[in-house]
Amino acid sequence: RVIKTDMELEVLRYTNKISSEAHKEVMKAVKAGMKEYEMESLFQHYCYARGGMRHTSYTCICGSGENSSVLHYGHAGAPNDKTIEDGDLCLFDMGGEYYCYGSDITCTFPANGKFTPDQRAIYEAVLKSSRAVMKAVQPGVAWPDMHRLADRVHLEELTKIGILKGNVDDMVKVHLGAIFMPHGLGHLLGIDVHDVGGYPEGVERIDLPGLRSLRTARSLEQGMVLTIEPGIYFIDHLLDQALRDPAQSCFINNDVLQRFRGFGGV
Protein backbone atom coordinates (compact mmCIF):
# COMPACT_ATOMS: atom_id res chain seq x y z
CA ARG A 1 0.00 0.00 0.00
CA VAL A 2 2.93 2.41 0.62
CA ILE A 3 4.47 1.65 -2.78
CA LYS A 4 1.99 2.66 -5.48
CA THR A 5 1.39 0.90 -8.79
CA ASP A 6 1.47 2.86 -12.05
CA MET A 7 -2.35 2.77 -12.16
CA GLU A 8 -2.60 4.12 -8.61
CA LEU A 9 -0.21 6.92 -9.51
CA GLU A 10 -2.41 7.86 -12.49
CA VAL A 11 -5.51 8.08 -10.27
CA LEU A 12 -3.60 10.20 -7.73
CA ARG A 13 -2.41 12.53 -10.49
CA TYR A 14 -6.01 12.94 -11.62
CA THR A 15 -7.35 13.69 -8.13
CA ASN A 16 -4.65 16.28 -7.57
CA LYS A 17 -5.13 17.85 -11.02
CA ILE A 18 -8.87 18.40 -10.50
CA SER A 19 -8.32 19.61 -6.93
CA SER A 20 -5.68 22.08 -8.15
CA GLU A 21 -8.13 23.46 -10.72
CA ALA A 22 -10.78 23.77 -8.00
CA HIS A 23 -8.39 25.76 -5.80
CA LYS A 24 -7.80 28.17 -8.70
CA GLU A 25 -11.55 28.67 -9.12
CA VAL A 26 -11.80 29.49 -5.42
CA MET A 27 -8.97 32.03 -5.70
CA LYS A 28 -10.77 33.78 -8.55
CA ALA A 29 -14.07 33.92 -6.66
CA VAL A 30 -13.05 34.96 -3.14
CA LYS A 31 -13.95 38.49 -2.04
CA ALA A 32 -14.11 40.30 1.28
CA GLY A 33 -17.55 39.90 2.81
CA MET A 34 -17.98 36.27 1.76
CA LYS A 35 -18.11 33.41 4.24
CA GLU A 36 -15.36 30.83 4.43
CA TYR A 37 -17.93 28.08 3.87
CA GLU A 38 -18.89 29.63 0.52
CA MET A 39 -15.36 28.85 -0.66
CA GLU A 40 -15.66 25.31 0.71
CA SER A 41 -18.92 24.88 -1.20
CA LEU A 42 -17.40 26.17 -4.45
CA PHE A 43 -14.46 23.80 -4.13
CA GLN A 44 -16.75 20.82 -3.57
CA HIS A 45 -19.00 21.81 -6.46
CA TYR A 46 -16.10 22.11 -8.90
CA CYS A 47 -14.61 18.75 -7.87
CA TYR A 48 -17.96 17.01 -8.33
CA ALA A 49 -19.19 18.84 -11.45
CA ARG A 50 -15.89 18.80 -13.35
CA GLY A 51 -14.14 15.79 -11.87
CA GLY A 52 -16.82 13.35 -10.76
CA MET A 53 -15.50 13.56 -7.21
CA ARG A 54 -18.45 13.09 -4.91
CA HIS A 55 -16.37 13.29 -1.74
CA THR A 56 -13.44 15.21 -0.33
CA SER A 57 -10.45 13.44 1.21
CA TYR A 58 -10.97 15.26 4.53
CA THR A 59 -13.03 18.08 5.98
CA CYS A 60 -12.16 21.27 4.09
CA ILE A 61 -10.03 23.77 6.00
CA CYS A 62 -10.88 27.35 4.96
CA GLY A 63 -9.04 29.55 7.42
CA SER A 64 -9.02 33.32 6.89
CA GLY A 65 -7.28 35.93 9.03
CA GLU A 66 -6.31 34.55 12.44
CA ASN A 67 -8.05 31.26 11.59
CA SER A 68 -5.23 30.51 9.14
CA SER A 69 -2.99 29.70 12.11
CA VAL A 70 -5.42 27.09 13.50
CA LEU A 71 -4.16 23.68 12.41
CA HIS A 72 -7.05 21.52 11.11
CA TYR A 73 -9.55 24.36 11.41
CA GLY A 74 -12.90 23.68 9.73
CA HIS A 75 -14.17 20.92 12.04
CA ALA A 76 -17.65 20.94 13.60
CA GLY A 77 -16.54 23.23 16.42
CA ALA A 78 -15.12 25.81 13.99
CA PRO A 79 -17.05 25.14 10.77
CA ASN A 80 -15.51 27.60 8.29
CA ASP A 81 -18.05 30.25 9.31
CA LYS A 82 -16.00 33.43 9.63
CA THR A 83 -16.64 36.36 7.29
CA ILE A 84 -13.57 36.94 5.10
CA GLU A 85 -12.28 40.49 5.60
CA ASP A 86 -10.25 42.84 3.45
CA GLY A 87 -6.58 42.32 4.28
CA ASP A 88 -7.03 38.73 5.43
CA LEU A 89 -4.77 35.93 4.31
CA CYS A 90 -6.76 32.87 3.24
CA LEU A 91 -5.20 29.48 3.99
CA PHE A 92 -7.35 26.90 2.21
CA ASP A 93 -6.43 23.25 2.68
CA MET A 94 -8.77 21.09 0.58
CA GLY A 95 -8.57 17.95 -1.53
CA GLY A 96 -11.02 15.91 -3.58
CA GLU A 97 -11.25 12.11 -3.58
CA TYR A 98 -11.72 9.87 -6.62
CA TYR A 99 -12.35 6.12 -6.38
CA CYS A 100 -11.10 6.24 -2.78
CA TYR A 101 -7.78 7.91 -3.72
CA GLY A 102 -7.12 11.22 -2.02
CA SER A 103 -5.47 14.54 -2.64
CA ASP A 104 -4.21 17.14 -0.17
CA ILE A 105 -3.47 20.67 -1.39
CA THR A 106 -2.98 23.86 0.61
CA CYS A 107 -2.98 27.33 -0.95
CA THR A 108 -2.45 30.64 0.83
CA PHE A 109 -3.31 33.95 -0.80
CA PRO A 110 -4.59 37.44 0.13
CA ALA A 111 -8.38 37.80 0.04
CA ASN A 112 -8.13 41.16 -1.71
CA GLY A 113 -5.60 39.93 -4.28
CA LYS A 114 -2.63 41.92 -2.99
CA PHE A 115 -0.06 40.80 -0.42
CA THR A 116 1.13 43.26 2.20
CA PRO A 117 4.95 43.35 2.47
CA ASP A 118 4.82 41.21 5.63
CA GLN A 119 2.44 38.70 4.05
CA ARG A 120 4.65 38.43 0.98
CA ALA A 121 7.77 37.91 3.08
CA ILE A 122 6.27 35.00 5.01
CA TYR A 123 4.71 33.51 1.88
CA GLU A 124 8.05 33.61 0.05
CA ALA A 125 9.83 32.06 3.05
CA VAL A 126 7.47 29.07 2.97
CA LEU A 127 7.71 28.86 -0.82
CA LYS A 128 11.49 28.76 -0.53
CA SER A 129 11.40 25.91 1.99
CA SER A 130 8.92 23.98 -0.15
CA ARG A 131 11.12 24.35 -3.24
CA ALA A 132 14.22 23.35 -1.26
CA VAL A 133 12.56 20.11 -0.14
CA MET A 134 11.24 19.37 -3.63
CA LYS A 135 14.76 19.76 -5.00
CA ALA A 136 16.29 17.50 -2.33
CA VAL A 137 13.68 14.75 -2.20
CA GLN A 138 14.63 11.45 -3.87
CA PRO A 139 14.76 7.72 -3.10
CA GLY A 140 17.11 7.01 -0.19
CA VAL A 141 16.54 10.33 1.58
CA ALA A 142 15.35 10.13 5.21
CA TRP A 143 12.05 11.99 5.61
CA PRO A 144 13.03 13.56 8.97
CA ASP A 145 15.99 15.18 7.19
CA MET A 146 13.55 16.86 4.80
CA HIS A 147 11.65 18.25 7.81
CA ARG A 148 14.93 19.55 9.24
CA LEU A 149 15.75 21.18 5.88
CA ALA A 150 12.42 23.03 5.82
CA ASP A 151 12.93 24.15 9.43
CA ARG A 152 16.38 25.53 8.62
CA VAL A 153 15.14 27.50 5.61
CA HIS A 154 12.34 28.97 7.74
CA LEU A 155 14.79 30.07 10.43
CA GLU A 156 17.11 31.63 7.86
CA GLU A 157 14.24 33.54 6.24
CA LEU A 158 12.71 34.66 9.56
CA THR A 159 16.14 36.04 10.45
CA LYS A 160 16.27 38.00 7.18
CA ILE A 161 12.79 39.39 7.89
CA GLY A 162 13.98 40.50 11.35
CA ILE A 163 11.71 38.37 13.52
CA LEU A 164 14.72 36.31 14.62
CA LYS A 165 18.33 37.21 15.34
CA GLY A 166 21.50 35.23 15.93
CA ASN A 167 23.05 32.03 14.67
CA VAL A 168 20.73 29.62 12.85
CA ASP A 169 22.73 26.56 13.98
CA ASP A 170 22.12 27.61 17.59
CA MET A 171 18.40 28.10 16.86
CA VAL A 172 18.24 24.55 15.47
CA LYS A 173 19.78 23.17 18.68
CA VAL A 174 16.92 24.61 20.78
CA HIS A 175 14.25 23.50 18.26
CA LEU A 176 13.08 27.04 17.56
CA GLY A 177 11.66 25.97 14.20
CA ALA A 178 8.92 23.98 15.93
CA ILE A 179 7.50 27.21 17.39
CA PHE A 180 6.66 28.34 13.84
CA MET A 181 6.02 24.89 12.27
CA PRO A 182 4.67 22.65 15.05
CA HIS A 183 3.38 20.01 12.64
CA GLY A 184 5.24 17.51 10.49
CA LEU A 185 6.45 18.43 7.01
CA GLY A 186 4.07 16.04 5.25
CA HIS A 187 2.71 12.52 5.13
CA LEU A 188 2.09 9.48 2.98
CA LEU A 189 -0.89 9.88 0.63
CA GLY A 190 -3.07 7.20 -0.97
CA ILE A 191 -6.36 5.54 -0.09
CA ASP A 192 -6.25 7.56 3.13
CA VAL A 193 -5.17 11.18 3.11
CA HIS A 194 -2.85 10.30 6.01
CA ASP A 195 -1.98 6.92 4.59
CA VAL A 196 -0.80 3.93 6.60
CA GLY A 197 2.69 2.45 6.77
CA GLY A 198 4.55 5.40 8.25
CA TYR A 199 6.00 3.50 11.18
CA PRO A 200 6.57 -0.16 10.31
CA GLU A 201 8.52 -2.38 12.66
CA GLY A 202 12.05 -1.02 13.04
CA VAL A 203 11.17 2.63 12.30
CA GLU A 204 11.00 4.69 15.49
CA ARG A 205 9.32 8.05 16.06
CA ILE A 206 11.79 10.84 16.88
CA ASP A 207 10.72 12.35 20.19
CA LEU A 208 11.74 15.96 19.53
CA PRO A 209 9.64 19.11 18.94
CA GLY A 210 8.20 19.19 15.43
CA LEU A 211 9.78 15.88 14.45
CA ARG A 212 7.56 13.92 16.81
CA SER A 213 4.57 15.08 14.73
CA LEU A 214 5.90 13.44 11.56
CA ARG A 215 3.54 10.72 10.33
CA THR A 216 6.53 8.79 8.97
CA ALA A 217 10.25 8.68 9.70
CA ARG A 218 11.06 6.31 6.86
CA SER A 219 13.70 6.62 4.18
CA LEU A 220 11.97 7.29 0.87
CA GLU A 221 11.55 4.65 -1.81
CA GLN A 222 10.48 4.86 -5.44
CA GLY A 223 6.69 4.62 -5.69
CA MET A 224 5.94 6.31 -2.37
CA VAL A 225 3.62 9.33 -2.53
CA LEU A 226 4.04 12.04 0.10
CA THR A 227 2.80 15.56 0.62
CA ILE A 228 5.28 18.42 1.04
CA GLU A 229 3.53 21.08 3.09
CA PRO A 230 5.80 23.27 5.20
CA GLY A 231 4.25 26.22 6.98
CA ILE A 232 4.99 29.21 9.15
CA TYR A 233 2.34 30.09 11.72
CA PHE A 234 2.09 32.74 14.41
CA ILE A 235 0.30 30.88 17.23
CA ASP A 236 0.10 33.00 20.37
CA HIS A 237 0.50 30.26 22.98
CA LEU A 238 3.58 28.85 21.20
CA LEU A 239 5.12 32.31 20.79
CA ASP A 240 4.47 33.08 24.47
CA GLN A 241 6.02 29.73 25.41
CA ALA A 242 9.17 30.58 23.44
CA LEU A 243 9.37 34.06 24.97
CA ARG A 244 9.26 32.52 28.46
CA ASP A 245 12.13 30.17 27.63
CA PRO A 246 15.51 31.95 27.87
CA ALA A 247 17.07 29.37 25.53
CA GLN A 248 14.66 30.43 22.77
CA SER A 249 13.70 34.01 23.63
CA CYS A 250 17.28 35.21 23.10
CA PHE A 251 16.76 34.67 19.35
CA ILE A 252 13.46 36.57 19.08
CA ASN A 253 13.10 40.26 18.24
CA ASN A 254 9.89 40.79 20.17
CA ASP A 255 9.33 44.31 18.80
CA VAL A 256 9.24 42.92 15.25
CA LEU A 257 7.28 39.84 16.30
CA GLN A 258 4.46 42.06 17.61
CA ARG A 259 3.69 43.05 14.00
CA PHE A 260 2.88 39.42 13.25
CA ARG A 261 0.53 38.77 16.20
CA GLY A 262 -2.82 37.95 14.63
CA PHE A 263 -1.15 37.44 11.24
CA GLY A 264 -2.33 33.85 10.93
CA GLY A 265 -0.15 31.54 8.91
CA VAL A 266 1.03 30.35 5.52
TrEMBL record:
<dbReference type="InterPro" id="IPR000994">
    <property type="entry name" value="Pept_M24"/>
</dbReference>
<comment type="similarity">
    <text>Belongs to the peptidase M24B family.</text>
</comment>
<feature type="domain" description="Peptidase M24">
    <location>
        <begin position="12"/>
        <end position="257"/>
    </location>
</feature>
<dbReference type="GO" id="GO:0006508">
    <property type="term" value="P:proteolysis"/>
</dbReference>
<protein>
    <submittedName>
        <fullName>Xaa-Pro dipeptidase</fullName>
    </submittedName>
</protein>
<dbReference type="InterPro" id="IPR036005">
    <property type="entry name" value="Creatinase/aminopeptidase-like"/>
</dbReference>
<dbReference type="InterPro" id="IPR052433">
    <property type="entry name" value="X-Pro_dipept-like"/>
</dbReference>
<dbReference type="GO" id="GO:0008237">
    <property type="term" value="F:metallopeptidase activity"/>
</dbReference>
<dbReference type="Pfam" id="PF00557">
    <property type="entry name" value="Peptidase_M24"/>
</dbReference>
<keyword id="KW-0479">Metal-binding</keyword>
<dbReference type="GO" id="GO:0046872">
    <property type="term" value="F:metal ion binding"/>
</dbReference>
<keyword id="KW-0464">Manganese</keyword>
<keyword id="KW-0645">Protease</keyword>
<keyword id="KW-0378">Hydrolase</keyword>
<dbReference type="InterPro" id="IPR001131">
    <property type="entry name" value="Peptidase_M24B_aminopep-P_CS"/>
</dbReference>
<keyword id="KW-0482">Metalloprotease</keyword>
